[in-house]
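Project outcomes to date are best conveyed with an example. Our students and postdoctoral researchers have been running inverse folding experiments weekly, and each run begins with a structure described purely in tokens. The record below, which covers 151 residues, was selected by the lab manager from last quarter's runs and is presented without edits.
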């Protein structure tokens, strides 16, 4: 009885097809991962908005302090990728730096006054040196200031 097996050429063709499919799918997969990281920013910006509104209802003004005394009482939970908050002040009080290591200077457009605020989230999600920057204001409007996914 003759044993049946695949020839070396057939195996090489299968490996080449798998390599081609992997080559085509990896950029799509990376883009998906970057979008997942951005969804963290949307969630945390909405949480900052809710905390600012609660602080305004209680004190009649918005605050640029996220955590600590006279703050809105917001602190991120778990491992975060983006840097959140306001550029002025101290880390852990006015801003929190995420694991992407985006410096607080990327938060320069953030501000809080008695009647308005703009909170910023910034993170270099694809590692090209240009941060993805999103903002939220007192009307719950999220804007993409710098789109790192468009590059």
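After processing, the design step wrote out the following sequence:
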């Amino acid at each position: 009885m003759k044993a049946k097996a695949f020839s070396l050429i057939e195996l090489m063709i299968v490996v080449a097809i798998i390599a081609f499919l992997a080559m085509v799918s990896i950029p799509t997969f990376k883009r998906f991962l970057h979008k997942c990281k951005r969804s963290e920013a949307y969630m945390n910006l909405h949480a900052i908005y809710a905390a600012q509104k609660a602080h305004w209802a209680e004190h009649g003004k918005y605050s640029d302090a996220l955590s600590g005394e006279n703050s809105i009482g917001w602190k991120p939970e778990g491992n975060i990728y983006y840097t959140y908050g306001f550029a002025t002040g101290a880390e852990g009080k006015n801003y929190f730096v995420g694991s992407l290591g985006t410096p607080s200077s990327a938060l320069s457009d953030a501000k809080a006054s008695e009647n308005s605020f703009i909170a910023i989230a910034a993170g270099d999600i694809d590692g090209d040196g240009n941060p993805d920057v999103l903002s939220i204001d007192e009307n719950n409007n999220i804007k993409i200031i710098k789109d790192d996914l468009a590059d």
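Strands lie at 83-85, 95-96, 111-112, 117-123, 132-137, 142-146. The chain has a mean pLDDT of 91. The training component of this project remains on track.
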